[in-house]
């Protein structure tokens, strides 16, 4: 997998095309209600120190499939706001954006000297699972501040310190992710964890959002693999 700077006209056009789709831009906010980014504006953003942008590829080919970025990069207070989107539909829900985001965060903390990176996601968006897998911690909620098709949704807020970030490994993560997805899709008993066991579902009214249990089971398996193969870090 490669992280590519947005330094070519054709790449700027490709990424701007992804962000122009409602399925992507409805979840984003680039300030003052702006959600759609043109190639010209994207080029300006890529040249400014307040933004840090990279397109990412799959691990087998050099074809760009998504975008990860930082807005509001503050060199004085060493903070920034993280966001991302998968542009090619065939690569969604396959772990690519998780691995790309992890590599990108390593690059951001190391090369930009950042201390804390913030992010948010609209409530019920599946990107919440990715945010949790990356190690971000929940810090709050902005209520009914994001509108999609006239309906107000909450934004769920997270942050991650440089000392808390641990980069995920490509092959190991994909083995865990693919096993979980295939078993969930093929099970008549409902979703299974990476060990093949049915997930426990919270009782009605119990705390937690749908999908939370699966996220923690996948994370537990990833931690086990890291410990058994690599030792403590």
Explain how this protein is built.
The chain is an alpha+beta fold and 233 residues long. The protein has two domains: 3-161, Gcn5-related N-acetyltransferase (GNAT) (Aminopeptidase, 3-Layer(aba) Sandwich); 169-233, no CATH class. Helices cover 36% and strands 24% of the residues. It has seven helices and seven strands. It has helices at residues 9-19, 22-25, 39-47, 96-112, 127-133, 170-186, 212-230; strands at 3-4, 52-57, 64-74, 79-86, 116-122, 137-148, 151-161. Strands 1-2-3-4-5-7-6 form a seven-stranded mixed sheet, sandwiched between helices. Helix 1 (9-19) packs across helix 3 (39-47). The longest helix is centred in the last third of the chain and has 19 residues, at 212-230. Residues 172-177, 179-197 and 199-233 have low confidence and may be disordered.
Structural class: alpha+beta
Number of helices: 7
Q: Quick one: overall form?
A: globular
Please, what is the CATH homologous superfamily of the largest domain? Gcn5-related N-acetyltransferase (GNAT)
Low-confidence stretches: 172-177, 179-197, 199-233
Termini gap: 23 Å
CA radius of gyration? 18 Å
In CATH, the architecture of the largest domain is: 3-Layer(aba) Sandwich
């Amino acid at each position: 997998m490669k992280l590519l700077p947005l330094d070519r006209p054709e790449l700027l056009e490709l990424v701007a095309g992804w962000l122009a789709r409602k399925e992507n831009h409805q979840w984003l906010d680039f300030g003052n209600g702006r959600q759609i980014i043109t190639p010209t504006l994207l080029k300006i953003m890529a040249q400014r120190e307040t933004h840090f942008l990279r397109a990412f590829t799959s691990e087998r080919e050099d074809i760009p499939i998504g975008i990860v970025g930082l807005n509001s990069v503050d060199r004085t207070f060493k903070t920034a706001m993280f966001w991302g989107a998968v542009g090619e539909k065939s690569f969604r829900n396959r772990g690519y954006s998780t691995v790309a985001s992890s590599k990108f965060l390593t690059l951001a903390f190391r090369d930009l000297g950042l201390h804390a990176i913030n992010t948010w996601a609209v409530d019920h968006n599946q990107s919440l699972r990715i945010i949790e897998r990356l190690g971000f911690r929940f810090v709050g909620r902005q209520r009914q501040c994001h509108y999609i098709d006239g309906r107000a949704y909450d934004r769920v807020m997270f942050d991650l310190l440089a000392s808390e970030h641990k980069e995920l490994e490509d092959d190991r993560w994909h083995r865990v992710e693919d096993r979980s997805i295939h078993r969930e899709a093929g099970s008549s008993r409902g979703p299974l964890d990476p060990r093949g066991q049915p997930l426990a579902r919270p009782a009605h009214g119990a705390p937690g959002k749908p999908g939370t249990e699966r996220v923690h089971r996948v994370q537990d398996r990833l931690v086990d693999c890291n410990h058994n193969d690599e030792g403590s870090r």
